[in-house]
Amino acid sequence: MTRMNKKIRALFATGRGGEEEVRRALDAVGGELIVLNKPDEGQLIEAVKDVDVALSFGAPASRAVFEAMDRCQGWVGFGHGFDGVDLPAATDNGIILANTASFGTDEVSNHAIMLLLICSRKFVLHDKLVKSGTWTRDHLAPMGHLPFQTLGLIGTGNIGRAVGRKAKAFGLKIVVYDPYARSWDIEEYGFEPALSINEVCEKADYLTLHTVLNSETRHMISDEQFKIMKDTAYLINVSRGPCVDEAALIRALNDGEIAGAGLDVFEQEPAPAGNPLLKMDNVAVTSHYASYSEVAFTRGLTQLGEEGVRIAMGQWPMSHINPEVRTKLPARESPRAWGTF
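User: That's the sequence. What structure does it adopt?
Assistant: Structure tokens below.
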């Protein structure tokens, strides 16, 4: 491998701990980890000038940060999303971007299935009734019967595929829209490909979102989509809040255009106390923790360090999120499984 004779210096920008897990990879290759807690943009700009790679646990990266990266070869962010990073600026400056995709696939997919089941059994309403002292069999109909119903998936990354695979165990038919996936691959997973978002919305009894947040996906579900969904359908969102037009969702719920929703994410987080979604008996909500378990976060933070070492040692990362940068850079080694280090 390249660069073995040079001590790697990595920056870890965090406000949430994780140093111990990230440090494992650097220790394995005799590298040095510089930790910055809750840095501002100015501190990041200075720090990236003297490291080989930057690692982030929640710190955003602007164009100014990437423009300061003369020595620094890459930026690795914890998690699946990368909406806090100026992706075009990184590519313009020849900076490799990576994330820790797959670290919480089971957690997020299980959370989506949990919300689906909660919605299908109208759990929020009936939990509230029983706890308030009302024991009744009113308000049961309409109640979901999952076998032979349709789960609509938007996005077939690691999490989307896992949700579809697990949902099939309940007898659900899986219809998928993903403009970046090949139809024969979708069919190989046992799913039915759709040609548009609207086609999935029309067919779905439960619609789940598994996409990144960018200009293409922001408000991808809005008034048009809610109007063509079944009035018995539910929306499940464990991706990013702004992928759904929240005002349109509230209108759709108030007007009975859909039956309800299960949300782990919101357009504004923390969700304001006055958000109408928090008061609806047909909406299940959690506080953006779908990816969390102790095992998953330990794995993700360890992976963060491993990806940083790969980049610093002249390899491509396993979870490369701006592959177009390859045209700007010299050839690199393919990423190696961590055991080979």
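Residues 203 and 302 are 40 Å apart (CA to CA).
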